[in-house]
Amino acid sequence: MTRIIAGVAGGTPLASVPGTLTRPTTDRVKEALFSRLESMDALTGAHVLDLFAGSGSLGVESASRGAASVELVEYDGGAAAVCQRNAATINDALGRKVVSVHRSKVESFLGRVPDANAEQWDLVFMDPPYPLGEVELSTALAALAPNLSPEAVVVLERSTRSPEPTWPAAVERFAEKKYGETRLWFAEPAD
């Protein structure tokens, strides 16, 4: 069972995407990730973007822990419907709309952001499907880069068998951590 781990709605169960379409972030990885993000003070008041959202559990967890706004971006219709249910769950728990869902391909969503001043995200989760090619991933990172706040944190989750992504010049990796078959890369805007 997927659940919100901590924050205002800690312990609240979340809907999961049926089948093998997505691979949810395990509670172990999620706990370690959010512990690190809280120690970096990257959550409170943050504008969060969850790309390739799956069930939206990372974005919803961020909302429970004090994010100001969360946008979930998911293309698959079934997964997007689960995102909608989970967004409604957290929005109800918070008593206001913090989480919104966009059924869109990541490239299309990022292509609609008009300019670097229109939308700036402080925290971005990217958990693309493992079959996503490295070129597509690099393209998404490059499209994201102009829309990051100066102190933004990008968290990219991939299989340990996947190569490190090609970071665009505007984004640089500052850490990585392996948890079993999962690897997290942490990046920030380059100086």
TrEMBL record:
Its EC number is 2.1.1.171. One of its GO terms (molecular function) is 16S rRNA (guanine(966)-N(2))-methyltransferase activity. It is an enzyme of class 2 (transferase). Keywords: Methyltransferase, Transferase. InterPro entries: DNA_methylase_N6_adenine_CS (IPR002052), RNA_MeTrfase_RsmD (IPR004398), SAM-dependent_MTases_sf (IPR029063). This is 16S rRNA (Guanine(966)-N(2))-methyltransferase RsmD. The lineage of its organism: Bacteria, Bacillati, Actinomycetota, Actinomycetes, Micrococcales. The gene is rsmD.
